[in-house]
Amino acid sequence: MNPKELKEGECVHLVDFKKEGVYPIKLKKGDRFQYSGQFISHDDLIGKEEGRQVIFTGGKEMVVFRPTYGEYVLHMPRGAQIIYPKDTGQILMLADIYPGATVLEAGIGSGALSIAMLRCLGPEGTLISYEIRDDFARRAMLNIEQAIGGKPPNLVLKNQDIYKEITDQDLDRIVLDVPEPWQVVPHAKSALRPGGIFLSYLPTIIQVVQLVETLRREKGFVQIHVSESLVRDWNVDGKSVRPAHRMVAHTAFLTTARRIQD
Length: 262
Ligand code: SAH
Known about the structure:
Elements: E1 11-16, E2 21-26, E3 32-35, E4 38-41, E5 52-55, E6 61-65, H1 69-75, H2 85-94, E7 102-106, H3 112-121, E8 126-131, H4 134-148, E9 155-159, E10 171-176, H5 185-191, E11 192-202, H6 205-218, E12 221-227, E13 234-237, E14 240-243, E15 253-259
Parallel strand pairs: 7-8, 7-10, 8-9, 10-11
Antiparallel strand pairs: 1-2, 1-6, 3-4, 5-6, 11-15, 12-15, 13-14
Bound molecules: S-adenosyl-L-homocysteine.
């Protein structure tokens, strides 16, 4: 649980609620944040509660908040492209990530999905992450540590190519964000426990077809299901009550399958 007061080292967001701008800052004693020639001192935020209105030297008003999960991942530094919150929400439900589960993911990327899964797994669960790129793994660990306030004891990061093999067994869930997940299907078949769930995030339908055909051919998997999620924002302002003009039209398809006993 978050302590009430904002602490040095925390990432917070200054929100310009009139212009809907968001400015992430990492609190550090003695530092100042500058906005259009006006300043706010970090010392005025440290030790105070979130949700407070802050006034800049020239009278500009903003509010300080701890970022939500969705806000944090959209603003954190990236190595690899992240999975966006609209898909993360679906992944947590479709892969049925539950407290105490053992989940294998590949790759860790920037750590966005890992943070969401760690939150669902709780201290009793384990997240095993295979990643082939050291630079991405390092970036992801920094992002995860910043998000959860330290090293997660239940995250096992392995510099390992998931196309070659899965060295962990009796897994409850396998969640993939790699370009050729069909290469993982035979390993997933032996590593998932009966009743376990396989999920893959893929940007193109050609990849999805290849994956689904492999899952069918390999046997051992049922309830093969493909979906995508479209989120449409709405504008509610006086008589202007209508869908927003712009939306994210496409991110990826989610494919799930359930392992049966041989
Ligand atoms: N889900 C992540 C983003 C992952 S991007 C997030 O939300 O932040 C895809 C990652 O998979 C990259 O980091 C890439 O290096 C890694 N990767 C690609 N092929 C791999 C393989 N065969 N084994 C393990 N990791 C792999």
